Amino acid sequence: FYAMNKIHILILSLITFTCFSCQKQNAKTQLEEIAINFCESFYNFNYPVAKEWSTPSSQSYLSFLASNVGQTHLEQLKTRGAAKVSVISSEVDANLEEASVVCQIKNAFVIHPIGGKMEYVSSLQDTLELVRVNNKWLIRKDIPQQNGKQSHD
User: Fold this and answer.
1) Element (H, E) at 5
2) What's this model's pTM, rounded to 2 decimal places?
3) What is the pLDDT of residues 24-61, one digit of tens each?
4) 110 - beta bridge partners?
5) 45: number of Cβ within 10 Å
6) Which residues contact residue 100 at a Cβ distance below 8 angstroms, ignoring those fewer than 6 apart?
7) Rounded to whole angstroms, how far apart are CA atoms 106 and 100?
8) Low-confidence residues of the chain, pLDDT below 70?
9) End-to-end alpha carbon distance in the chain
């Protein structure tokens, strides 16, 4: 009877661990999709769509960037073609509350917030910080700080 109980506990432990691993794997896949959707919107100047994937604290920054996009920016984007996004790596914390996804963006334009100057970049990396808000993963894309630190929600 005791040996039988031990086997049940072992099997139950394995099932629990496997389910948690699957949950973490599913979270990673979901995060990567969100990161790609966000980057495709963000780097193609589609800020209203990028806002849908963003934390409340990121909204004002995205609105500010959107206000800097002019017709010449959109024409240059059209000439070069859309930015292409791929995921380099992603990491989810143990309690599935925070994550980071590193994306590679090719064929991108970057608008500098100060002065609104646009620069073409053939390839760049963007590390996105994601947080869970009301059971939904959102990207924290706040105004970059001078010292390289991001402000937190």
Assistant:
1) helix 2-42
2) 0.76
3) 567 788 899 999 999 999 999 999 999 999 999 999 98
4) 119
5) 19
6) 90, 91, 127, 128, 129, 130
7) 19
8) 1-25, 113, 116, 143-153
9) 53
